[in-house]
Amino acid sequence: MGFVSRATWLLKRQLLKRKFKGFSAGIRSFADSQVCFSDHVRMMGRTVLSDVKIGRCTTFVDAVVCRGVVGSFCSIGPGTTIGGLGAHPLNMISTNPVFYSTLRQCGMTFSDADYFTEMKSVVLGNDVWVGANALILGGVTVGHGAVIAAGAVVTKDVPDYSVVGGVPAKVIKYRFTAEEIALLLKLQWWALPDSVLSANAQLFRSGDVQALSSALG
């Protein structure tokens, strides 16, 4: 990161605090000009964001997130890397980009066009918790309410309200029954105004999906 980019970000931090209610960004954090913020987003520690659209009430702690969408009410744990790593083809003779990319990563190229998508977007739904030191590769979609265990390497899409872990990450369990998950997805509580969520906070703590659905549905 250059001095100009750093200085620009430090100035922009102050402007974002005025524009978005509850916005906070640590002095060591950084976000480029392609990041779209919402209210109550917090960037803690050395969080770095690039080309990301973020929903409200989402927190990042020492995380690196590149190219994608992060929903509302997400908790992104320390040491996580989400997107931005690029990919290499396994079905070509060589995995070196000199043969399929015009970006000249090696300072040269044998390719007359781009034959492989190296950088893919990541989509995190709403109310997603990503544990410490997890890695989510480009092209992955993480469903609403999902939990990514600490240290997991996520290479495939993650179902709604599932808990995944391991290398590569696999489904360990689901947080609720299939019927309850359907109710939560229909409810889409994360889109409701803060006043409604605050008035029903006790129901969120109870874990009673049926009661919450009755109150908000």
UniProtKB/TrEMBL annotation:
<keyword id="KW-0444">Lipid biosynthesis</keyword>
<dbReference type="InterPro" id="IPR011004">
    <property type="entry name" value="Trimer_LpxA-like_sf"/>
</dbReference>
<dbReference type="Pfam" id="PF00132">
    <property type="entry name" value="Hexapep"/>
</dbReference>
<dbReference type="GO" id="GO:0016020">
    <property type="term" value="C:membrane"/>
</dbReference>
<keyword id="KW-0441">Lipid A biosynthesis</keyword>
<dbReference type="InterPro" id="IPR001451">
    <property type="entry name" value="Hexapep"/>
</dbReference>
<keyword id="KW-0443">Lipid metabolism</keyword>
<comment type="similarity">
    <text>Belongs to the transferase hexapeptide repeat family.</text>
</comment>
<dbReference type="InterPro" id="IPR018357">
    <property type="entry name" value="Hexapep_transf_CS"/>
</dbReference>
<keyword id="KW-0012">Acyltransferase</keyword>
<keyword id="KW-0808">Transferase</keyword>
<dbReference type="GO" id="GO:0016746">
    <property type="term" value="F:acyltransferase activity"/>
</dbReference>
<dbReference type="GO" id="GO:0009245">
    <property type="term" value="P:lipid A biosynthetic process"/>
</dbReference>
<dbReference type="InterPro" id="IPR050179">
    <property type="entry name" value="Trans_hexapeptide_repeat"/>
</dbReference>
<protein>
    <submittedName>
        <fullName>Virginiamycin A acetyltransferase</fullName>
        <ecNumber>2.3.1.-</ecNumber>
    </submittedName>
</protein>
<keyword id="KW-0677">Repeat</keyword>
